[in-house]
Amino acid sequence: MGRKPTPAPVRFWSKVDKNGPNGCWVWIAGKTPAGYGDFRHDPKKNSSVAHRYSWEQIKGPIPKGLQLDHRVCRNKACVNPDHMVVCTGVENWLQPDGCAGINKAKTHCPKGHPYSGDNLFVYGSGPRKGKRLCLTCNYECYERRVASGAHAARVRRWKEKNGKSKNVSVSGGERPPATPVHVSPSPIGGS
Ligand SMILES: [Zn+2]
Ligand SMILES: [Zn+2]
């Protein structure tokens, strides 16, 4: 028979146990660091997740840029396409056990200050509307940046960039600008 490689679909289904709990089709081979089934089927790509491959085999191509969410069983190792829905990353993130859902349930910042009253600042727009910032931590961050000189460096950069065209002259007694807001651009973490 020689050394003909086993076709990818044959290899794929040999690594699936369709008798998993709750109707899950459990991936019984290697997993990615994130816990998804790891299935290499395209030599040009070094890795691909098994549940996406499973979906494509049974339901067809996944529209570009969209993700599969294990919304039914929450089992990342499951490759049963009936347990998944196609969604955008943001929708995935907004699920109750996504970052935003977890954050919404928090009543205090990681350092224990309350997300309420004068200590709470709500910001964001679009799907990320309603992100919360602890003003105590924010101010502490500002003071740390002042102490380390990072803030002065930032002010200097700002002046270099904006000072020339507007010809702003700042003489003596520099007032600190509004408290800076440091927000991670990633949806993970934050409020
Ligand atoms: Zn499942
Ligand atoms: Zn805080």
What is the secondary structure topology, with strand pairs?
Blueprint (H helix, E strand, L loop, with lengths): L7 H6 L2 E2 L8 E2 L22 H9 L8 E3 L15 E3 L1 H6 L4 H6 L15 E4 L7 E4 H14 L1 H17 L25
Antiparallel strand pairs: 1-2, 3-4, 5-6
The site of one zinc ion has 6 residues, from loops.
What does this entry look like structurally?
The chain has 2 domains: 8-96, Alpha-Beta Complex (Homing Intron 3 (I-Ppo) Encoded Endonuclease, Chain A); 106-162, no CATH class. It is of the alpha+beta class. Helix content is 30%, strand content 9%. It has 6 helices and 6 strands. The mean pLDDT is 79. Strands 1-2 form a two-stranded antiparallel sheet. A two-stranded antiparallel ribbon has the order 3-4. Residues 24, 73, 75, 78, 80, 83 line the site of one zinc ion (ZN). One zinc ion binds at residues 109, 111, 113, 134, 136-137.
Architecture per CATH nomenclature, i.e. the level-2 architecture of the largest domain: Alpha-Beta Complex
Give the tally of β-strands.
6
- In terms of DSSP E residues, the strand content is 5-15%
Helical region count? 6
Strand arrangement across the biggest beta sheet: 1-2
